[in-house]
């Protein structure tokens, strides 16, 4: 919004909830705010209320601005540009592989399916983060010209190498709150093997809520620490010898880029789109979470990565890899500024 504002584009924001501090941050940007009101339950009624109010507001704005471009980060069926599109089918496949408990929300499921079909039929352009999403859209008849693959960049000022060498560190790091989705469940299973080979290492799990601490306590495993999410995660990366992100599903995944920008190698799942950055052993290892022996795959990959020697300049080389990656791949902001 700030980038469009600097170009003199009038901006309209339709939102139900605006996080504290956002309006203050954007106070110098030419924005007209349009609040909408809804209820939290049931989700199907909530989505209908959001849709009807949004449609009314868009129609009103279009009377004054016929060239209005509607951009949405969510599957809003009224959008001209769908940013970060991730088909529901990919999430359903991940839940099946991970044997997640089923949720019965027929109204919401029907809404999501309709919104996705509508966007596929009418959105001017769809911005995606993953090869899996591209393949799905192409297989469902979306013309390649309507698809563009973009990335979410990491802050290279915030995330950068520190002086402590990787070899001197004694922590493995995993960040996430949902034990199944983020792979914390298989990380704990793998830890039972890893800690036998590296008894001086600690597994640090950064999360919020009660589910992960409960899993850790129930596991009875030694050398596992649970820490809170903080606004400066680079502090955790600065202590890590290796970062794990064995997620069953991600729409993008910031952690691999942040870790590598800090000079720390990663073990990441193929199902995390940002794993595309891992192209050499110095950067890390990619595992396929197909639901078959995932914990053993994670343990083997982690042990293999820990066995690799870390050269003196490896941390800076990893940081440079992220710089080069972000220069080669357009971000959603760059794409929108160039095409909208």
Give your account of this protein's structure.
This protein folds into 2 domains: 2-153 and 329-339, 3-Layer(aba) Sandwich (Rossmann fold); 166-327, Rossmann fold (3-Layer(aba) Sandwich). It has 340 residues and is an alpha/beta fold. The protein is 41% helix and 15% strand. Strand 8, helix 8 and strand 9 (224-228) form a beta-alpha-beta unit. Helix 3 (43-64) runs parallel beside helix 5 (106-122), helix 7 runs parallel beside helix 8 (211-219) and helix 7 crosses helix 11.
Count, helices:
13
Mean pLDDT, nearest integer?
Answer: 94
Counted up, domains total 2
CATH superfamily of the largest domain: Glycogen Phosphorylase B
Count the strands? 12
CATH overall fold name of the largest domain: Rossmann fold
Give the termini separation.
Answer: 12 Å
Output the radius of gyration. 22 Å
**Structural class of the secondary structure composition?**
alpha/beta
The CATH architecture category of the largest domain equals: 3-Layer(aba) Sandwich
Instruction: Bin the strand percentage.
Output: 15-25%
Question: In CATH's first tier, which class of the largest domain applies?
Answer: Alpha Beta
Low-pLDDT residue intervals, each spanning 5 or more residues: none
The largest sheet is:
6 strands, parallel
Sheet with the most strands: spatial strand order: 9-8-7-10-11-12
Tell me the overall shape. Answer: globular
